[in-house]
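Take a look at this chain, tokens included, and explain the fold to me:
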Amino acid sequence: MATRATSARSRHKRWLRLTGQSVVMVTLGAGLVAFVGTGKEVHLTVDGAGRTVQTYGGTVAEALAKADVHVGAEDEVSPALDSPVTDGSTITVSHAHPVDLLLDGSGTTIHTTGETVGDLVVELGVAGAARVSVPLDTKLVTLSDRITVLTEKDVTVVVDGKTSTHTTLVAWLPELLDELGLTLGADDRLSIPASSAVVDGLGLKITRVVKGATVTEKESMTFPVTERDDATLLLGEREVDVEGVDGERTRTFAVDSVDGREVSRRLVQETVTREPVAAVVRVGSLDPAAKAAEEAEAREAEEAAAREAEAASAGQKQSGGAAAAPASAAGPAPAGGPWAALAQCESGGNWSIDSGNGYYGGLQFSRSSWIGAGGGQYAPLPNQATPEQQIATAEVLRQSGGWGHWPSCARKLGLL
């Protein structure tokens, strides 16, 4: 019985083992069928190179991972990484290339999926008006140097009183000034910093500043007027003895200006190039009434002289003798007396002086007063007569106007 029981247990264990193996085999077979049944054929193009791959992934990302294709954030993948993959799907991958770019003077690195420089320029949106440092058909993968791209910009410039608009491709302000042929003076001012980048729509004003420019000007100097009292002229009458002449001076200034408008100046030098000549004017002080009396006395004296001359002529004829010779025109001055003192004050005692200012002789007669007092009977001018004849004529003047005919010296001598 024991042997039979043991044999039965052995058969039972073998059956269980065979049954378990069968279950495992069935399960593995079913899994293999399921695995083979989900495999897909995908057409993959990476950077223009195509191939067909087998994948069992359910999404584009899984298919690319299975194909050992790595993608970054800048790369382009179509369809999207989370899109489902079916048998016969097409996946396109374009890896982005880093490009060292100098765009309008500013350095940057751009990742692009374009193949050529032309593709990059189009991507930047400046294809129609850009200046590029390398040919547009250059392959990006062959580049080792930086690409320089200059875009077209419109700028407005105000300078020297004029406003103009320019289109330029330069990147920096100094380049723009060179392009426009504008030279800045040492003190000129810019409305923006000199290191500014040139951008579209830029406005620039240049203020011209000139400091210390030399300006030389000539100015007239008005002549002075010297007035002299003249008792032979009526009160208020004026006669010019010496014509005045204006002088001239040259003045040099240091001038500061802004945009051609003077804002300040300072005198740095002044030179008189021609001295003015003073005018000399005689101003009358003779009272009209006294003048009338003087003229009346002069007429009477002339008439008396004429009568005396007639009488002398008649006496000479009666006596048959020759007339006495005229006295010397320039004899010695009478000694002492007020007339000698007056002559000393008026002319330094020189009875034959012609001072050149319209006054003559020791007592400084004017021609009109000499003739008016009857001096013409002795000589045409006082300085041509003897001192006695000059005193005789002066006595006629004194009788009509007193010592006031010689106001200054008469006061000094106490005669007034």
